[in-house]
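User: Continuing from earlier, I have the next pair ready.

Assistant: Great, send them over.

User: Here they are, in order.

Assistant: Folding the first of the pair now:
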Amino acid sequence: MGKPIPGAVPAVFFTRRAYVVEVIDGDTVSVDVDCGFHTRVRMSCRVAKIDAPEKNTIAGKAAKLFLTGMLPAGTELVVDSITIDKYGGRFDAVVWKVSTGENVAEVLMKTGNAKPWVMGKEKKPYAL
């Protein structure tokens, strides 16, 4: 095996099934991640590559309501983990709704409930 490259991060840490526990805000969902062998871990998952309005705003409340309708408790997801979130205690992932095959971030952006996440000083959109 080769040596890891310092600072290199894989594009996807893991792909797992997960089940919605509750929607926290317009881009964060509490999920039970299926680790296999009848083991699940409850974690907070931020939908990657988007920015939803802050939850204390009217638009933020609308985004949460929309996401709650799209992902009611028990909804089966596939999460492609990207990284641990910069605020800690949650992970960022590309999230797919299993029953429809929809990319949750794309739906949130198409419906106006989120916009592309912009990174760094260059203000370049984070590509889906």
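And the other member of the pair:
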Amino acid sequence: MLFRALNRIFAPILHAERQTNQKKLITHHSIKKMKRFFTFITSLMLTLSISAQNGLDKTAMQIIDEMSPGINLGNTFEATTNWTGADFWNNKGGLGAETGWQGTKTTQAIIDYMRSLGFRSVRIPCAWAFGHISDASTYTIDAAWMARVKEVVDYCINDGLYVVLNDHWDGGWLENHIADSDPTTIARNKHILTQLWTQIANAFKDYDEHLLFAGLNEPNADTQSATNNLIQYNQTFVDAVRATGGNNARRVLVVQGPSTDIGHTCNYMKGRMPTDAVADKLAVEVHYYNPWQFWGMEKDESWGKMQFYWGDGNLVSGSQRNVNNGEAEMKKQLQMMKTNFVDKGYPVVIGEFGANWRDLSGLAGENQQKHNASIKAHYRELHRLCKEMGGMVPMTWDTNYTKQDGSKGTMTIIDREHLTVYGTYAMEGINEIWPRPDLSAIRQTTVKPASSPVVSDLAGRKMPDCNGLQPGIYVMNHKKFLVK
């Protein structure tokens, strides 16, 4: 069809050129030039058509396998300026919400730095209903907020990164009410979810396969009954996005398991993924924070103590703060996801993962070196298992909070203000599975300013010299172009 269409366009031109040349007794040089032009245009259109088709025709499994390792732009677009006055269905959050929970505005340089560390995907947790609605009667998302989110998505696409964009907690308007069983409430929630995702999907409908949508974050559902409601909301999300058409007709969509808990997801939602108009374009999301006493517990309780040591070779003899069988439990849970979802054709997004790196200097008798090694082992092992099993992408939780606060700890890896690695041991653990430049080279990386165009190849590798590109297909501003 493409050749026929081009032939209809150019055949009359070539015929007229021949007639003119015969009358003027001119050589066929101009005809040859036109033929070369015809060949170039045909090749260009066919190549770009095939490239775009190949990208959008990738299955969810293929795309997820290209996304590891991933990182979160956490405590940023899901935040609010402050809790006073912030509410649903108004615009009180404003653009200032981006720095409400951490102080650094997102720039192209920050995303460039993430890319220089080797991350291949970025999850952007995002609020919409909670402080970013300009018209409550129609649930209209504020245009300035949408534009800012698009700007940051573009930063990632410029660098050839995959992006997961979601509706993240959002004040809990839906996630805290998944179990509500009143039919009127469910119908209203479906209507709002449709309104929100229709707007988001329309705003990004021309983006290629590097952008994935995730319907929610951590929907609170810990029973089969609540999960049955969640399944309805997952279907509503899929239907809303697909109805917008464009590239959204084949975009990879991510639905959440109940409470994004692996056990609940395998028990209550296996075999109950949404119906989709297109095959092999759905993924399921869970989170891995386990065990609580190791990754997040901030003080000892009567029922248990904080745990600091994880992994073979890192346990302290006689300590009550060891995580016993840590590796075995991690492998068991990931194997559950593989058996119930990956092996059934549904890849897994581990949308959040991490453990607090703690300062134990104020606690007598504790071993900081063993704890540091435990953090490294925890990150390394999860990435190793996901890579080994396939069909899973771990996306590290990262919040730009560069204080350990003693034994409370922090999960932050990247200091966004200074473009340095703060969580050294976590980064080293990831590096052992996904090799990166050494830390000294990372800190010396020179990034381009946000105004400079970023050109990458189809594998996501940034091109250092845009003026000396070799023949091939490249990406700039999420658009493909050909260099002959």
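Worth noting for the second one:
The longest helix spans residues 29-56. Residues 159 and 454 are 6 Å apart (CA to CA).
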